[in-house]
Amino acid sequence: MSKPQFVYVSYIETSPEKLLEALTSSEFTRQYWFGAEIRSDWNVGSPFALLLDGEITDSGEILEADPPRRLSYSFKHQKYEELRGEPISRVVFTIEPFGSLVRLTVLHDGFVEGGKYLGAVSNGWPAILSGLKSLLERGKVLAIPRAALNKGFDAK
User: Fold this and answer.
1) Average pLDDT of the chain?
2) For 40-92, how does the pLDDT look when each residue is reduced to its tens digit (9 = 90+)?
3) pLDDT tier for residue 12 given thresholds of 50, 70 and 90
4) pLDDT > 90: what percent of the chain?
5) Strand ranges across the sheet with 47-52
6) Cα separation of 74 and 64, whole Å?
7) Spatial distance between the Cα atoms of 119 and 111, rounded to a whole number of angstroms
8) How many H helices and E strands in the chain?
9) What domains sit in the chain, N to C, each tagged with a CATH number?
10) For the chain: N or C, fewer Cβ within 10 A?
């Protein structure tokens, strides 16, 4: 039996380089990731951190960096007690050019059967990635409420 995972595919009118920059630059992430800052030097083995309102919400390590085609990091939730006990997961971004479009595939795996984290991720990633697509294509982010990130689990 396969382990639970989240997969999201989107076509975005941008270049692979601009998409990678949007995924790795706090200047961009603050705009579409509900104010979150992303921190790393993006070298394999380097630490990764996601900060929201100055607090580390998720952390990990860079597992793979092949710009602008592929990026992967481990992902451990830090903020909500009910999710802290979940195992370290993995996020993989695959970026493939298709003419004037780029196909972005996000794979988030490493979840446990019956865990709460997959539900949180399954609601959070679509909201985040919709904002990313809108920002890159239209220059502005959709007005998705931050509560969309918490749907799927009861965060206190």
Assistant:
1) 92
2) 999 999 999 999 999 999 999 999 999 999 999 999 999 989 899 999 999 99
3) very high
4) 81
5) 5-12, 101-109, 89-98, 70-77, 55-66, 47-52, 37-39
6) 10
7) 10
8) 4, 7
9) 6-148 (3.30.530.20)
10) N
- 103 near 9, Cβ under 8 Å? yes
Residue 78's alpha-carbon distances to 40, 59, 69, 88, 113, in angstroms, are 17, 7, 28, 11, 20
104-124 pLDDT, tens digit each: 999 999 999 988 999 889 989
Give the up-direction half-sphere exposure of residue 139: CA atoms within 13 A in the CB hemisphere.
Answer: 0
pLDDT at residue 152, as a whole number: 54
Q: Which tokens sit at 45?
A: 């083995």
Supply 24's token pair.
């790795």
Q: Whose structure tokens read 């979840």?
A: 111
Mean pLDDT, rounded, for 90-109:
97
Please report the sign of the dihedral spanned by the C-alpha atoms of residue 80, residue 10, residue 133, residue 49: positive
Evaluate whether 131 touches 141 at the Cβ level (below 8 Å).
yes
The one-letter code for the residue type at 36 is A
